[in-house]
């Protein structure tokens, strides 16, 4: 198949959508598909894109940029002539939304995957739905988890199916080749973009609470991997509360370095409530770490309470669950053994199979429209 992925966000930007699309393209190309990426993210200086990455200029202001991007998108779709268009959207994705509308109206099979939680976002998704009549488009809708699909179903209505198309990992890339000995100091790790949405400062308060709950004679260490606009605020918080001697901020790390951090840790924490899936948490679970996460987030797609980790509905609950895992070695060992020996079901074999199923459904969805167009021409 010739597959075209469209996203506002792609490398060199780093985030969940960017890395997922890159990995999905890689897997599909390994399967023999002619897979391309069309994005409005500019390239970085001095970096040459692979031939299947196409960048569309959308820099001439909000309206002018969209008009220019739409023209570039139209030419690319005509030139590439894809068998299916896979559109990846977040909270605000004007370029990808335009692509979904243009591709589906042209009779191209179109799958839209929502990578964000469209809940607690005020009137924005509803306004877009009312203005653009999203539910009437001949596209197949999907979201990366059941919690992410629920608000989308509520918005589009009961007549529009919303499928779950989860993210994935390559288990062999995260499972330790040799079981590592337990760390001498209980170590909590988190991997995140340091933004308000990911709840960077609430994580710092949770860690402070854990330190207060765990007896002072028990040494404790925390590592928060990542970077972003909240980093300086986090550094100030750590200094103010005298936490910078046990909470480390190594910055953004490559996957191999993250794998080593996970191998040397005791437990992983994912504090975000608007996490639509939580690929970093899945990587940690695949590496064998117990995961503590918000029960409101998409992490529940692969973390069962008291099986793969512990869930909490509030920050107080998350701190309590972390303190419990830090101090209860048998509980921590039981969950770690399960995670190290039972592979997650969200691997790339399953993800590619499910993606192909939805591509077939997208092809079926455009048939009535094509039949009407053919009849009109005749």
From TrEMBL:
SUPFAM superfamilies: UDP-Glycosyltransferase/glycogen phosphorylase. The keyword Translocase does not apply. Pfam families: Glyco_transf_4, Glycos_transf_1. Keywords: Glycosyltransferase, Transferase. Residues 218-336 form the Glycosyl transferase family domain. Transmembrane segments: none annotated. InterPro entries: Glyco_trans_1, Glyco_trans_4-like_N. Residues 15-170 form the Glycosyltransferase subfamily 4-like N-terminal domain. It comes from the Bacteria. This is Glycosyltransferase family 1 protein. It comes from Nocardioides endophyticus.
């Amino acid at each position: 198949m010739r597959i075209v992925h469209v996203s506002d966000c792609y490398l060199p930007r780093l985030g969940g959508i960017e890395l997922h699309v890159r990995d999905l393209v890689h897997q599909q190309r390994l399967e023999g598909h002619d897979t391309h990426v069309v994005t409005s993210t500019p390239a970085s200086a001095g970096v040459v894109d692979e031939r299947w990455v196409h960048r569309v200029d959308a820099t001439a202001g909000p309206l002018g940029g969209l008009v220019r991007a739409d023209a570039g998108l139209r030419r690319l779709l005509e030139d590439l002539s894809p068998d299916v268009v896979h559109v990846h959207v977040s909270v605000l994705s004007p370029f990808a939304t335009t692509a979904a509308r243009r591709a589906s109206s042209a009779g191209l099979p179109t799958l839209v995957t929502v990578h964000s939680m469209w809940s607690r976002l005020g009137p924005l998704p509803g306004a877009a739905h009312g203005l653009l009549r999203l539910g009437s488009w001949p596209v197949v809708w999907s979201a990366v988890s059941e919690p992410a699909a629920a608000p989308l179903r509520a918005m589009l209505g009961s007549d529009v199916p919303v499928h779950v198309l989860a993210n994935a990992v390559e288990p062999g890339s995260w499972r330790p080749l040799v079981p590592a000995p337990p760390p001498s100091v209980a170590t909590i790790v988190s991997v995140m973009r340091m933004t308000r949405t990911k709840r960077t400062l609430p994580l710092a308060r949770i860690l402070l609470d854990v330190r207060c709950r765990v007896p002072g004679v028990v040494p404790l260490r925390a590592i928060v991997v990542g970077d972003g606009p909240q980093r300086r605020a986090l550094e100030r918080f750590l200094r103010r509360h005298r936490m910078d001697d046990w909470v480390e901020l190594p910055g953004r790390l490559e996957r191999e370095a993250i794998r080593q951090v996970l191998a040397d840790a005791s437990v992983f924490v994912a504090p975000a409530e608007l996490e639509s899936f939580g690929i970093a948490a899945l990587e940690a679970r695949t590496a064998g770490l117990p995961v503590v996460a918000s029960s409101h987030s998409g992490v529940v797609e692969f973390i069962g309470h008291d099986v793969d980790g512990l869930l909490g509905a509030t920050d107080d609950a998350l701190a309590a669950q972390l303190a419990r895992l830090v101090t209860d070695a048998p509980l921590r060992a039981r969950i770690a053994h399960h995670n190290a020996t039972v592979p997650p079901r969200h691997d790339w074999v399953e993800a590619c199979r499910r993606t192909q199923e939805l591509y077939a459904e997208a092809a079926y969805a455009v048939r009535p429209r094509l039949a009407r167009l053919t009849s009109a021409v005749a």
